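Sat 14:20. Reprocessing the chain from the morning session after the first attempt stalled halfway. Input below, unchanged.
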Amino acid sequence: MAGRKRINRTFSRPGDAPVVKPKIDKFLCTRCGSVYTTQKGNFPASKSPLFKENYGYLPVCNKCADALYDHYKEALGSGAAAMERICMKFDIYWNPESYESALNTGRFVSIVRAYISRVNIAKHGMKTYDDTLDEKGAGIVTPLSISDFGNDEEESANVPEIQVSPETVAFWGSGFTQDAYIDLDSRYKNWTANLDHELSLSEQALYKQVCLQELDINRKMMAGKPIEQGQNVLKGLLASLNINPDQKKEDDSADLESTPLGVWVRRWEENRPIPDYEEDGDGPSWIKYITTWFYGHTLKALGIKNVYSQVYEDEINKYRVAKPEFEDVEDDDIITSVVGEANDT
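Finished this time. Tokens:
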């Protein structure tokens, strides 16, 4: 038909709708089934394209990654071999130097998380285990075997071993690991370091229970178990020691309500004593200070008129300022009287 425009089918057809990534508020560990509300801090980070759509995190939680490391370390007889096995499974770049560095982060730090944080730095770019295979093929990295790293004792030869004394075991009781004994000793010292008196047996027992309860709370928290009951027990122990549960007693203000006045006087006299009065001094005597600012001020406040209140009144008059009267005075004169002439120096 003449005059009718032909529709261009190529440009008239609407395109596909943009892909909208759904917002996820729960993240499941594919090994243990634990559910987390955030990935950061709960799952190891990953640079592998295999986990790109998982927001850059592995699908296995930190606890399971640590458990896999412990399993392979026992099965293969070497922590380095165990770490490389984990790298194989999750497409993580393997670097022996980074592993050696991760071993020096401390006894209470996860080796797996310490290693992954080191290989995720800019130095290694976006490398994965495929880069490790390429480097091995090019002779940059020597392929590992279990015997390359020896046994566990050889790995930890450079890590100083802290021996737990028999006194420590007797103090806390048997059955704890070496790391637990070290942790408990450290907590006990922190709680009792700044006390200004010698602990009684009952106080020692309470502080020991505080440390044990803190250790138990931390273990349950790491295992994802509820800790509310343990926190309530800890608050009760702190209350028995007259310590504010929200803050460790570190200064005098923390036990303000429970300390008698006589104890405060003793502390003040020890730290900031009143200076001795000198009869030949130029200033007023202590008798005048007390008479004026204690007796006189008190009687003035109570509305009692006598010689003491009059002494106070005479003394306070020295510090009073008379209000100027400006009746029938021009505004310019008032300002001049208050701030002075413009050319005054």
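Residues 142-160 have pLDDT under 50 and may be disordered.
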